Amino acid sequence: MKILTWNCNGALRRKFEHLLDYDADINVVQECENPAETTHKAYNQFAQNYLWIGDSKNKGIGVFAKDYIKLERLNWSNNFKDHQVKHFLPCSINGEFDLLAVWNHSNKSPTFGYIGQLWKYLQINKSHLNECLIIGDFNSNKIWDKWDRWWNHSNVVEELKEIGIESLYHKSFKEEQGHETQPTFYLQRNLQKSYHIDYIFGSQEFVKNIKTIEIGPVSYWLKISDHLPIICEF
């Protein structure tokens, strides 16, 4: 099985064809429009088998799968005390494993933006995370840790490791968090402002069965988005 994640930077209807050469079984795409509210025929054909959530029809997160894959949305909670976190899309894949699609959002939170949203989500849904993949745009890296917060990037990585879930990129390339040699994001598409903020985390069954993992070439993808896709094959 081949799985891809990519923040398309909007207008996926004009960009999805760039994904087709990878022939992924599952594409997890952030900042894409709702296929149910577009009249773009080719995009609708691409999105024959999908799940999607978002705040507006123009920007959300989608899971797009080949026809033979059964996608089932899971009813995990977004409510942390009096705060609703976003954007998280949990789904079952063929009833065999769970996939949590992530697009970490600031969510207008002065303290729990981005990685704080995922930290909160883990506190209420950690019991669901058994055989699973957590995949998407985390908008986060260890280099932005703040010493006086317990929901830093490093804390989230450690909490996941405690339940057997690890970053497949870091495992495969034997790199430490915060010391990545391959960026996934270029702020304002500037080659001098590169960061690693997109991830595929997996439980131990996935860690053991990684066949390949790669990041799309910057020379190609930076013309299309400010993010590069990550492709993992098991």
Automatic annotation (TrEMBL):
- Domain of life, per UniProt, equals Bacteria
Q: Where are the transmembrane segments?
A: none
| Originating organism | Maribacter aquivivus
The protein's name: Exonuclease III
Instruction: Tell me which InterPro entries the record gives.
Output: Endo/exonu/phosph_ase_sf, Endo/exonuclease/phosphatase
MF terms (GO), sorted A to Z? exonuclease activity
Q: Where is the Endonuclease/exonuclease/phosphatase domain?
A: 4-227
Alphabetical UniProt keywords: Exonuclease, Hydrolase, Nuclease
Which Pfam families does this chain map to? Exo_endo_phos
